[in-house]
Specification:
With 266 residues, the chain is α/β, with parallel strands linked by helices. The protein contains 7 helices and 8 strands. It binds (2S)-2-amino-4-(2-aminophenyl)-4-oxobutanoic acid.
Length: 266
């Protein structure tokens, strides 16, 4: 927090983005600082294997606080979106956590649409950590399928310690099958590996050597698919971070990396 001048806690509002019978996780933390129509929204998506109730929107707070306190070329707002979770065997008492793919992704899309309708959000970037990175890149196809919502594609997507191909993940880590099946069901129903499908924004894939939960494999394979499916004019960067899987979010290295690319956004 050393560099912070604005204490973002003072501008935070927690809002529900679901109109009917909202689930308690269908909320977002909104950091609304500027009403400028040209404002860039910085949207954080948390991870936690689609199920860990201890990992919520608040894990993005350090990053958002620091980024909102630097001078960017465009006035900026931020939000961190919660989404419904799948069951976790260590928390059987959380009987309301019954989400199954594509609930998580549909919730994130509903959160983005809420920001568009309520705050007039037009330009935004997505920053996803771990399973949040999966969700961030899943938005590309969801948004293109639903062009009518009026929501533009993100100007940039940052995947941090991300999961981008669940079949490959389970092949590398058979022990992860449990949480993958909990979130996505049987193997025959698993979604295909993610790619960019002609996206012409900026894709940043960042990963740390010290990540104890994920090797570089997910990021390396995603890099290959991105190279093949990035549209003309789009950009792809692969960046090395520092720290363990969750610690990465607390590092100045991550903050500096995000700031650098945000400053260069056209
Ligand atoms: N993000 C991950 C990536 C790979 C493997 C595990 C995780 C987890 O978050 C596990 C979580 N602590 C869980 O118990 O569900």
């Amino acid at each position: 927090m050393a560099r912070s001048e604005l204490d973002i806690e003072t501008v935070k509002s927690v809002e529900s983005y679901a109109s009917e019978f909202p689930h308690e996780l269908q909320t977002l933390d909104v950091y609304h600082i500027t009403r400028a129509p040209s404002a860039l929204w910085i949207i954080f998506l948390h991870g936690g294997a689609w199920r860990d109730p201890r990992v919520t929107s608040s894990v993005g707070k350090n990053l958002l606080a620091q980024v909102l306190n630097t001078s960017l070329p465009t006035p900026a707002n931020a939000a961190a979106i919660n989404y419904r979770l799948s069951p976790h065997p260590s928390f059987p008492e959380l009987t309301q956590n019954t989400a199954k793919h594509p609930d998580h992704a549909n919730d994130v899309l509903a959160g983005l649409d809420y920001l568009r309708v309520k705050y007039g959000m037009r330009q935004y970037v997505l920053i996803g950590h771990s399973a949040g990175a999966t969700l961030a890149f899943q938005m590309l196809s969801l948004l293109q399928k639903r062009r009518t919502t009026g929501l533009a594609l993100p100007k940039a997507i940052f995947g941090i310690e991300g999961i981008y191909d669940i079949a490959s993940l389970v092949k590398e880590y058979p022990g992860y099958r449990e949480f993958i099946e909990g979130a996505f069901g049987e193997e025959k129903d698993w979604p295909d590996a993610l790619s960019l499908g002609g996206y012409t924004g900026l894709a940043v894939l960042a990963h740390s050597d010290e990540d104890q939960l994920l090797s570089w494999r997910q990021t390396e394979e995603m890099k290959g698919r991105c190279e093949d499916t990035l549209g003309v004019g789009g950009g792809l960067r692969v960046v090395k971070l520092a720290g363990q899987h969750d610690e990465v979010l607390e590092t100045d290295r991550l903050v500096g990396m995000v700031e650098r690319y945000l400053k260069d956004l056209k």
